[in-house]
Amino acid sequence: MTKQVSADDIISQARKYKEDREKNYREKALKLYPWVCGRCTREFTHANLSELTVHHRNHDHDDNPEDGSNWELLCIYCHDNEHSRYEEQVRYGVQNSAEAEDHGGDATFSPFADLKGMMKK
Q: Which phi and psi (to 5°) does residue 82 adopt?
C-alpha cells in the first residue's frame, strides 16, 4: 500500500528545500561580497541584513558556483525591481521601460477629467 502525499506535505518539502538552498548560497555570498546593494548602493549592517538578498544574475537559482560569479547582493526593493523587469522581458520581449513606452503603453483613460463637473452635481 502506498502512502498518499498531501499537497501540504509537498508544499512543506518544497519550502524546506528552498530555505536550505538559500541558506547555503546566502551565507557564502555574504562572506564574498561587501554588504552593499549592487544597484542603489545602500549599505547594510547586522541590524538590517535581512533586507539584503542574493540575486542570481542568470535567474537560475540552482546555478551557484563557489566563486559567486552568478550572484549579486541587492536590497529587497532592487531585487523585486530586477525580477519585475525580467518577467516583463520574458513575457513581452521588452528590455526596459523606455522601450515599453515606445510600444504604446500610454494610458488614455483619465478618471478625473471631468472632476469639476462631477463636483457640481
A: -60, -45
Compute CA distances 114 → 2, 107, 109, 117, whole Å.
Answer: 66, 17, 12, 5
Domain boundaries, the chain: 29-94
Domain 29-94 has CATH 1.10.760: no
pLDDT at position 22 over 80: no
Closest CA to 39 of 26, 30, 52, 23: 52
- All three cell numbers of 6, joined, read 498531501
pLDDT in tens, 24-62: 888 899 999 999 999 999 999 999 999 999 999 999 988
What is the three-state SS of 70-89?
A: CEEEEEHHHHHHHHHHHHHH
CB 56 within 8 Å of CB 71: yes
